[in-house]
Write a structure and sequence with these properties.
single chain; 398 residues; alpha/beta; Aspartate Aminotransferase, domain 1; Aspartate Aminotransferase, domain 2; 7-stranded mixed beta sheet; 4-stranded antiparallel beta sheet; 14 helices; 38% helix; binds pyridoxal-5'-phosphate
């Protein structure tokens, strides 16, 4: 192993007394980010004003940061770009894929997908008004549901509730065999598992940067399009910064070169500054090392909880190849149990109806953290303190 995870852990701001197992939802603050953002504000925005677009490289950042993320997901240079939120990137990829398969009517996805991806598909179908069908099957039935009617298979690799991981290569190969395109949502994969979009030959990949990549709340999303396909993609969200010559202000849209056409409008410069410092940490990380460490910590957590916490049922596959970088357990009173854990400084989250979710992030978690989480969970289940009324009151964000 060449990655020094003790060194990466030291680069994060982790509050005293907190064991943070929710990096799959919102990564923690990199220590360097506040100064990097302050610099973007005072030295760049403050002093350079509008010249910052050139002098500070703001305009090029969606491409340069896109390439840095590309390295982590196996995407060649110049095939990944940053911008907007993940829901918007899903819309872009889906609209492009449907336009490339005009004679086909089915969007195939599975019931383990994150709701926003499904909602975006529903909205696009309505907007297009061409009688597309959204086919939602159980995760284990995706492969069998691929047929010659499918225009695009839209899959989130790792299930946000259970952590179950799809076999990307197999499903994409099967989709291509049937003449369908593949969109891969890497929201719970980028920075979490060893993805290789080029080897898996995906057509589109999208993902967010505020989860495992630690870019900060609201950090922009990314989109990757296979180079063999990009010239045929006509963007549905044809904003000026995806134009071939934005500053020529031509009367009509012409798609930009390669992946640049997937940009839409003005990039979030301040948010990109925080993401930039988060990506500095990733420069020293080998994804194979991260994957090995994640599995080892996950196994330790599963074994510890199963030995010490009766009443919790493992919802995550035991098989390494079928697992992402989170561990989930079911408990009929999962919400209250999670609130009790959080009150003791062990932060995970709850997903309805009964899932306790724990992100396993070797960048800043080690065996001591895992053991502490197990210990606290065992103690609140043993003494029943999770059942106190204050732990049953629901907040808006779970
Ligand atoms: C987190 C997540 C989203 C969130 O989308 P935003 O537009 O960034 O809020 C969408 N899809 C999946 C699969 C996710 O895990």
């Amino acid at each position: 192993m060449t990655t020094d995870f003790r060194a990466t852990k030291a680069l994060f701001e982790l509050p005293e007394g907190v064991t943070y197992l929710d990096g799959n939802s919102l990564g923690p603050l990199p220590k360097a980010a506040p100064a990097r953002m302050a610099r973007a504000m005072t030295e760049e925005w403050g002093e350079m004003l509008i010249t910052g677009w050139n002098k500070a490289g703001w305009m090029a950042q969606p491409a340069t940061l896109g390439d840095r993320i590309g390295r982590l997901i196996g995407a060649p240079e110049g095939t990944t770009v940053l911008g907007d939120t993940l829901s918007i990137k899903v819309h872009q990829a889906l609209a492009a894929a449907l336009a490339l398969r005009p004679e086909r009517k089915v969007i195939l996805t599975d019931s383990g997908n994150f709701p926003s991806d499904i909602y975006m598909a529903e909205g696009l179908i309505e907007q297009l008004g061409r009688d597309h069908e959204l086919r939602v099957v159980a995760p284990e039935e995706v492969e069998a549901a691929i047929d010659e009617d499918v225009a695009v298979m839209m899959i989130t690799e790792v299930d946000y509730r259970t952590g179950r991981r799809h076999d990307m290569r197999k499903l994409i190969a099967r989709a291509h065999e049937a003449g369908a395109l593949a969109i891969w949502d890497l929201a719970h994969s980028a920075g979490a598992v060893d993805v290789d979009v080029a080897a898996a030959d995906t057509d589109f990949a999208v993902g967010c940067t505020y989860k495992f990549l630690n870019g900060g709340p609201g950090a922009p999303a990314f989109i990757h399009v296979a180079p063999r396909l990009i010239d045929a993609v006509r963007p549905a969200l044809s904003g000026w910064l995806g134009h071939d010559a934005p500053f020529a202000f031509e009367p009509s849209y012409r798609p930009g070169a390669a992946i640049a056409r997937m940009r839409v409008g003005t990039p979030p410069v301040l948010a990109m500054a925080a993401l930039d410092s988060a990506l500095d940490i990733w420069d020293g990380v080998e994804m194979a090392d991260l994957r090995a460490a994640s599995l080892a910590l996950s196994d330790r957590f599963i074994a510890g909880v199963e030995a010490a916490c009766p009443g919790l049922e493992l919802a995550t596959p035991r098989d390494h190849v079928r697992r992402g970088s989170q561990v989930s357990f079911r408990h009929p009173q999962g919400y209250a149990v999670m609130q009790a854990l959080i009150a003791q400084g062990v932060i995970g989250d709850f997903r309805a109806p009964d899932i306790l979710r724990f992100g396993i992030t070797p960048l800043y978690l080690d065996e001591t953290d895992i053991d502490r989480a197990v210990e606290v969970m065992a103690s609140i289940l043993r003494d029943g303190s999770w059942d106190r009324p204050e732990f049953h009151a629901r907040a808006a964000v779970t």
